Structure formats: C-alpha cells, structure tokens
Amino acid sequence: MDPDRARALQATLGQQPTLQAGDVVPPFFHQVYFWDARPPSDLGADGHPAIGDAVIPDLGLPQRMWAGGALDFAAPLRLGEPAEKVTMCEAVQEKTGSSGRLAFVTLRHDFRQADRVCVTERQTLVYREDGPIAARVPKPAGREPTRHVRVVPDATLLFRYSALTFNGHRIHYDPEFARGPGGYAGLVVHGPLLAQWLVTLAQESLGPLARFEFRAVSPLILGEAARVCADEEGFWVEAEDGRLCMTASAEPQ
C-alpha cells in the first residue's frame, strides 16, 4: 500500500500530506487502492466496467449508483506493506420503484494484510434503467449539528478523486452525460467522497472506529456547498438548501 497514494488523497482532501510507511491507513482511504483497471473494450457507455462480470450479474439495468455501505475495522491496515482484496457478491434483490426496475446488489470486500482480515466493507449498489431519476420531495436534515465542516466541492476535486480511485464514471466529469443519460441536474459529487468526509469527522469525534455505516439519500451536485455534520445521534451531509444527502452512524473501538 504505497504511501504516496495516501498522501495524494490527503492533499486532495485539503489535509497536510504527512502519511509515511508504517502508518495506519486512515478509514476509507483503501478506496484509492486495489484498482480494477480495464481496457476501453471492457467499459460500459457510462465509463464504468461493463456489467455482467464474474462478480456482478448482468441484470439488464445500465445505470449504477452507490447507495451506501458499512465498514468493520478488525485491525489496522498499514502503509508500505502488501495487502489483498477479496470480493464476493452476497445478495441481489430486484424491485420496481418510481423510476422503473431496480436491482440492489450487495458486495462484500475483505481487505487482508499479514494473513488476517483487517477491514470488511459491504457495498450496496443500485442498478436502474436509463432516464431521469424520478423527482422526490427533498428530505431536510431537520436538526442542527453540534459540530460541522463546510465543504465546497469544485471540478478539480471531482477530477482528482476520480483519478485517485480510478473511477471512470462519466456522471463525475461529463456534464452532458450527467444531465442526459445519467438523469441528474449536473455533475455528481462522488458518494464515497461524502462518506470519506463523514468517516473522517466520525473518527475525529469518537477516536478509532470499530464500525462505520452510511446511506445515500440524495445526490450532491457540483456547484452546491454542503455541511458535513455531527451531533449526539449520528452524522450526516446536508446541501446548502438543507437537503439531506447522506446519513451515517459510527461505533468507537
């Protein structure tokens, strides 16, 4: 786990790039490792690896969204040491919603180092049909945080985060695609980036974490400022209009 890559993420997040070999990998920083690099012929129209591989079945639903996830921290991952990721599909559930057919796919990722599982991540993906996302009444956060950090994502941040995570999804850098086939109001701030801000705030508030869980509620669009918030009940991201974008909970070690 190359420390240079972790330092690049620190810099991207506005932190001082201080991490060195032997340091503990900060929570969720594993997103910038274990790239799934595919040639252009293996990509879908959205820039992501095409569906229907050895892990995720082809459900005939071209649009993909990251709906949420959960992380269990059993032991620290350390920079400068070899590590491996093992992925399996735990569940596939198909439904019909206001936007048409949907499929919820749960992937389990085990991150191993020194012959033990250090971090287990369960990733929930939603696959849906092409076209605009059905309009929903925005859900307000409805409470004031005891602590918050204001963030203003810009195009450079989205580009750098996409590059570091090797994420080719066009909703993060192609405005025409995001507004057209993607069905969004503009470029979308990465769900994992919102989760990164939340897990960082959670660790700053609680200390080392045993578990962190998050759920996407509504997309944050480029051009919107946001608050990354905490109170006694949990953590959340809200857009500048008060709209809830993501909720999270955390348990300390």
Query: Average pLDDT, to the nearest integer?
Result: 92
Strand order of the largest sheet: 2-3-4-1-6-9-8-7-5
Order of helices and strands: HEEEEEHHHEEEE
Instruction: Report the sheet-strand fraction.
Output: 25-35%
Q: Please tell me how large the radius of gyration is.
A: 18 Å
By DSSP, the count of extended strands is 9
Helix residue percentage = 10-25%
Question: Major β-sheet, in short?
Answer: 9 strands, antiparallel
Flag low-confidence runs: none
Terminal CA distance = 24 Å
Structural class: alpha+beta
Shape: globular
Count of helical stretches: 4
Question: What this model shows, in words?
Answer:
The two termini are 24 Å apart. 17% of the residues lie in helices and 34% in strands. It has a nine-stranded antiparallel β-sheet, covered by helices on one side. The protein has four helices and nine strands, in the order αβββββαααββββ. By secondary structure, it is an alpha+beta fold. The protein has helices spanning 3-12, 155-165, 175-179, 191-206, and strands at residues 63-73, 84-97, 100-113, 116-128, 147-151, 209-216, 226-231, 234-239, 244-252. It is globular, with a radius of gyration of 18 Å.
